[in-house]
Amino acid sequence: MSRGHAAMTSSEVDRVRSRLPGAKRPERSRRVDVGGIEVAVVEWGREEDQPVALAHGGFDFAGTWDLFAPLLADSGFRVVAWDQRGHGDSDVAALYTWEADIRDAAYVIDSLETKDPVPVLGHSKGGGMMNQLAEVLPHRVRAVINLDGIPNKRGFNTQIDRSDPQALEAELSGWLDHRRRAGQSSRRADTIDGLAERRQLMNPRLSMDWLRYLVTVGAKQDPDGWRWKIDPTLRFGPSGAWRPEWAIPRLRGLRVPYLGVIGTVEEEMGWGTTPEEAFPVLPDGAEFHALADTGHFVHIERPEDIASLVADFLRRVL
Amino acid sequence: MKTVFLDHVRSKLALHELRGGDGQPLLILHGLGEQSPSAVPISLEQWVGPVFALDFTGHGESSVPLAGGYTCEALMSDADAVLAELGPLTLMGYGLGGYVGLLLFGSRPKEIKGLIISDGPGLDGGGDKATSPQLLHVKAADLIGQTPDPWALAELASDIRPRDYAADHVRQIEILAGLDVAIVVASLGRPAWLSEIMTSAVVTDGDVGVGLSTFSRP
């Protein structure tokens, strides 16, 4: 790449990022071995402050915290986030599972080198992961904050009707077809605007300024254009044998301070859990907020409000 | 024995041709922690067509993925890579391989021509009901790239196999495969997922020999 090209690229990134003055890239980054591959860990805030670990949602990456995390750090927390395996700047893996993602989370918490239990926060899939982490490692988790990742019996919004043989065949064989091609595939190259417009189809409530910013963080620039860094072998569905109802009594059984937040505007990427479904399944004494006029990405739509809810909750329970 | 290696997602899968020939291939799927036999087992000699055996990811001569993450669905996708290579075939599954065979049959009901399930390691998995989740550990010193991968042994012995999940797959076979007998169950072991599919009209009891002759018919 010529120096001129590099300079042009950097100014394009700077221009895109300058439209979101509140967003802030992490202050520190490192890599953590999770048993043969490495995940990328980033931090905002003073190293001596109380750590809080943030788990992003499926198909997201730690950069999706760039609005929220700096605000929480300003409230006096060491905010630690990581890219899950195959996402963002972490290594790709040959295999992916829910259990492996939770194991990786435990490695990240170990890397904080504190014996004290740590408050954890997760969005969407990350929220479900943190529920399970608090169950399997109750002595390592000080509090759980769940942002629009509270399960319901119906499963995800995108779930198919498994009693429809054509729909089920399409889902099962479609996943296998994807796997047959996946070894050779790469993400499609596009402009920053092009990638942002495609992501907006799945994130219709988020601004184009934010989505363009995300491209500069979650995508890499190749000679033929920008590509999302996420492992192209990853794909939604099939949900496999896992049943959402398994998670519900376990959530109810957690004994840590718990803050649940949901957005009440349904979105394709969301779980569609209503306030009426969410509240009764939360642990005893949980604090719960159902936000009006807010979609699935509560921390991106309302970073100041969520940061203040979270900081206030943590100050009370820690 | 001839061995070819299939590039599949990020794995190299060892596919062994135990016996060549014309006709419908039989594909052996081994149990948890096992690997392919090096010759056609006596119990399968009566099969008229060619006989192949697959080493699942992390087993036998196949590659060992880093940092685990095994699921029966990923192993099903390994077997699907053989289906892409060989075309329609009959499955002989031992233990875990029997369950993986059911998942593949239910997902590719028009391309699998029959499944025989026999006993072997990993037949039960982690049972049919949700159990307390746990954080699995493998000693770093044991992760030396050899097979069987310790992560496979740990993760595939605890996967939950709900009855309705098995039933979903056998229903796809009933509706879409167009076979009077699709699965012959030759195992003594009958975990819940296997008891569940026994209620289907296209699943019968019988020994391996019965299965081979059932699926050998043109």
Give a verbal description of the structure.
The complex is a heterodimer of chains A (318) and B (218). Chain A has one domain: 3-Layer(aba) Sandwich (Rossmann fold). By secondary structure, chain A is of the alpha/beta class. In chain A, the strands form two sheets. An eight-stranded mixed β-sheet of chain A has the order 1-2-4-3-5-6-9-10, with helices on both faces. In chain A, strands 7-8 form a two-stranded antiparallel ribbon. The model of chain A is unreliable at 1-7 (pLDDT under 50). Chain A has helices at residues 3-18, 68-74, 98-110, 125-136, 165-182, 192-202, 208-218, 244-252, 275-281, 298-301, 303-317; strands spanning 28-33, 38-44, 50-55, 77-82, 118-123, 141-147, 219-222, 225-228, 258-263, 287-291. The longest helix of chain A has 18 residues, at 165-182. In chain A, α2 crosses α11 and α6 (192-202) packs across α7 (208-218). Chain B is an alpha/beta fold and 218 residues long. Chain B has a single domain, classed as 3-Layer(aba) Sandwich (Rossmann fold). Chain B has six helices and eight strands, in the order ββββαβαβααβαβα. Chain B has helices at residues 72-86, 96-107, 150-155, 163-176, 192-198, 208-216, and strands spanning 2-8, 11-19, 26-29, 51-54, 89-94, 112-118, 183-185, 203-205. An eight-stranded mixed β-sheet of chain B has the order 1-2-4-3-5-6-7-8, sandwiched between helices. In chain B, β1 (2-8) and β2 form a beta hairpin. In chain B, α2 packs across α4 (163-176). Chain B starts with a strand and ends with a helix. The A-B interface holds A 34-37, 85, 92-97, 99-100, 102-104, 106, 132, 135-137, 162, 165, 168-169, 172-173, 175-176, 179-180, 182-183, 233, 238, 240-243, 246, 250 and B 7-11, 57, 63, 65-74, 76-77, 80-81, 84, 106-109, 130, 132-136, 138, 140, 143, 155, 159-162, 165, 168, 171-172, 175-176.
